[in-house]
């Protein structure tokens, strides 16, 4: 993406102001077409692309919004989830919402085609969170039934990320 893509922030949605068919963001697997056929980015995608200087973000009054401004004004937002999202994207993975599986993200292996299924389901947890251990069995059951691997991304206070891969083992 040589030229920056223009994105409009409208009613807490991030809408790409280009024809979806030719959108370099869709080609790089950022965003999804909404019901109106417009490419819509998630907050995490928008933050990541702003940080990478790939987009210009404007509000409805055509005032530019910086990465720092968006970060400070975003209330429905987990910085730890963003850290994991950024880490996975920087490693070359495609990252999408895992909400329909009850996970934070679904992640695709590097180089997979868009019609292939995700390999991993990632749940972001805070360091020292006791609920993690209660959820391992339930999350593994979901991942196993969908032929994916459950991975827990633990983010500590120093922003270090540890990925723990768990799976069913038949004995």
In what order do the strands lie side by side in the largest sheet?
3-4-2-1-5-6
Total strand segments: 11
Could you spell the SSE succession in H and E letters?
EEHEEHEEHHEEEHEE
Q: Percent of residues in helical segments?
A: 25-40%
Unreliable stretches covering 5 or more consecutive residues: none
Beta content: 25-35%
Task: List the domain count as a whole number.
Answer: 2
Q: Radius of gyration over alpha carbons?
A: 17 Å
User: Main beta sheet, described?
Assistant: 6 strands, mixed
Query: What name is given to the CATH topology of the largest domain?
Result: Trna Endonuclease, Chain: A, domain 1
Query: What would CATH call the class of the largest domain?
Result: Alpha Beta
In whole angstroms, the N-to-C terminal distance is 50 Å
Please state the second-level CATH architecture of the largest domain. Answer: 3-Layer(aba) Sandwich
The general outline is globular
The computed structural class is alpha+beta
Give the rounded overall mean pLDDT: 87
Helix and strand arrangement:
Layout: E1 5-10, E2 13-16, H1 24-27, E3 32-33, E4 39-41, H2 43-51, E5 55-58, E6 64-65, H3 67-73, H4 79-90, E7 94-97, E8 105-108, E9 120-126, H5 131-145, E10 149-155, E11 161-166
Parallel strand pairs: 1-5, 9-10
Antiparallel strand pairs: 1-2, 2-4, 3-4, 5-6, 7-8, 8-9, 10-11
Report what the structure shows.
The chain has 171 residues and is of the alpha+beta class. It has 2 domains: 5-73, tRNA intron endonuclease, N-terminal domain (MutS, DNA mismatch repair protein, domain I), CATH 3.40.1170.20; 79-166, Trna Endonuclease, Chain: A, domain 1 (3-Layer(aba) Sandwich), CATH 3.40.1350.10. Helices cover 27% and strands 29% of the residues. The chain has 5 helices and 11 strands; from the N terminus they run E-E-H-E-E-H-E-E-H-H-E-E-E-H-E-E. It has helices at residues 24-27, 43-51, 67-73, 79-90, 131-145, and strands at residues 5-10, 13-16, 32-33, 39-41, 55-58, 64-65, 94-97, 105-108, 120-126, 149-155, 161-166. The chain has a 6-stranded mixed sheet with strand order 3-4-2-1-5-6. It has a 5-stranded mixed sheet with strand order 7-8-9-10-11. A hairpin with a 7-residue loop joins strand 7 (94-97) and strand 8. Helix 2 packs across helix 4. The protein is globular. It starts with a strand and ends in a 5-residue tail after the last strand. 26% of the residues are buried. The model has no long low-confidence stretch (mean pLDDT 87).
């Amino acid at each position: 993406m040589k030229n920056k893509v223009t994105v409009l922030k409208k009613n807490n949605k991030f809408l790409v102001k280009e024809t979806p068919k030719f959108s370099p963001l869709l080609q790089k697997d950022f965003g999804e077409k909404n019901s109106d056929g417009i490419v819509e980015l998630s907050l995490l995608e928008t933050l990541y692309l702003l940080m990478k200087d790939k987009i210009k973000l404007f509000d409805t009054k055509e005032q530019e919004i910086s990465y720092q401004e968006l970060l400070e004004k975003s209330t429905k937002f987990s910085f730890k989830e963003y850290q994991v999202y950024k880490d996975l994207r920087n490693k070359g993975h495609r990252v999408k919402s895992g909400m329909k599986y009850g996970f934070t993200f679904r992640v695709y292996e590097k180089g997979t085609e868009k019609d292939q299924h995700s390999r991993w389901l990632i749940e972001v947890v805070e360091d020292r969170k006791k609920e993690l251990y209660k959820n391992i069995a339930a999350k593994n059951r979901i991942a196993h039934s969908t032929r994916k691997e459950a991975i827990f991304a633990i983010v500590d206070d120093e922003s270090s990320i540890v990925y723990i891969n768990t799976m069913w083992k038949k004995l």
